[in-house]
Specification:
With 352 residues, this protein is α/β, with parallel strands linked by helices. It is 39% helix and 12% strand. The protein is globular, with a radius of gyration of 19 Å. Bound molecules: zinc ion. The site of zinc ion has 5 residues, from loops.
Length: 352
């Protein structure tokens, strides 16, 4: 089964975790076994080979860099220019992987169709759609033109905490004039709005001021795990009304209630790939169909084996999902939609 993963932080892993994604997953993990600077050291689940093994032929790959002011306790850069430079380094990594034939950019429908045609016979060069998680690095809206020129096709204005254009997870407040200016430029350039990480106030204001294409690349349900990082049923209904597709992340703390970081384990909390299907089913119930859900695993988003479904060793295990969906009563057609078709249909509309 061809699988689309709508959220991976590949270049962040390369540049901040110092992971060579062209190496085997075994080698990546062995090389960092002795490190303790991050909780997921030696526990990576994502490499290019594992993506190929999992028949994950198309990913949405992020650039990500936060700006922080002097009062912030979040990690980040002290000026937007530095954050921009960080994202340009990340872009350079993707470009290097294009040169080595590991990745190919997907920026329009001809490139998308060509990938779908060639992937079954040549499962080597993975398609990637370039996105930006948090817009702090867009120094001014003119930079968005440069980013678009370089291939940027989706943008989530917020990440964790307060942002320069929108407020994110654990923050409050709207998007204000700067956020609205950004959205207007995104509309002009036909950049997809990624609603993920927008706090409730910013979500409302963004929906009010943006009539372009919206998705939520990696988002679970507040109805199942109550936290402001998750969307409420009303928010999902608004997204569904706009034709959004919502990607299911596999970060354990968002999948089951009462997860304690560093203490809980996937086993002790009973987190499995089936737990993802609980969230996915909830959204399908709200929609009354299976047209609005897909995967956006975030499996390299600052966590690894210690905080993902217990029955997933590497990202290649996404191939277990079709079977699990079938056991839960999803039809063959539903399974195809969830694994790839919903994202492809969305892109066909967005890029028509
Ligand atoms: Zn995220």
């Amino acid at each position: 089964m061809f699988i689309v993963d709508a959220h991976l932080d590949l270049s962040m892993n390369a540049l901040e975790w110092n992971r060579d994604l062209r190496a085997s997953i075994k080698e990546i993990n062995e090389r960092e076994k002795h490190l303790t600077d991050k909780p997921d050291r030696g526990l990576a689940t994502v490499s290019l080979d594992e993506l190929r093994k999992g028949n994950i032929g198309l990913v949405v790959a992020t650039q990500i860099a936060r700006y922080v002011d002097r009062n912030s306790s979040l990690p980040g850069w002290n000026s937007p220019e530095q954050a921009w430079a960080q994202t340009q380094g990340q872009l350079a990594y993707y470009k290097a992987l294009e040169r080595s034939n590991d990745l190919r950019p997907i920026r329009n429908l001809p490139e998308l169709y060509s990938l779908i045609e060639t992937w079954p016979s040549d499962q080597h060069t993975i398609g990637y759609i370039l996105s930006l998680e948090g817009a702090d690095s867009i120094v001014s809206v003119e930079y968005l033109e440069i980013a678009h020129e370089a291939g940027l096709r989706a943008l989530g204005p917020a990440h964790y905490g307060p942002g320069r254009y929108a407020q994110g997870t654990n923050a409050t407040g709207g998007i204000g004039p700067k956020g609205r200016e950004l959205l207007q430029k995104m509309r002009e350039l036909n950049i997809i709005l990624d609603a993920t990480h927008l706090c409730d106030d910013s979500f409302d204001e963004a929906m009010e001021h943006f009539d372009g294409h919206v998705w939520a690349s990696h988002h679970n349900c507040r109805a199942l795990v109550d936290h402001n990082r998750q969307f409420s049923d009303a928010q999902f209904k608004e997204l569904i009304r706009r034709g959004a597709v919502i990607g299911m992340p596999l970060d354990a703390w968002m999948m089951v209630p009462n997860w304690e970081r560093g203490k809980s384990t996937p086993k002790s909390m009973g987190v499995t790939l089936n737990t993802m299907i609980d969230h996915l089913s909830h959204i399908c119930d709200l929609a009354g169909n299976t047209n609005h859900v897909g995967m956006g695993t975030d499996l390299d988003g600052g966590f690894g084996k210690e905080q993902c479904p217990n029955d997933l060793e590497t990202i290649a295990d996404l191939q277990k999902i079709p079977n699990l969906l079938a056991k839960r009563g999803f039809s063959e057609d539903d399974i195809k939609k969830i694994c790839h078709q919903n994202w492809l249909n969305f892109l066909e509309k967005a890029w028509a």
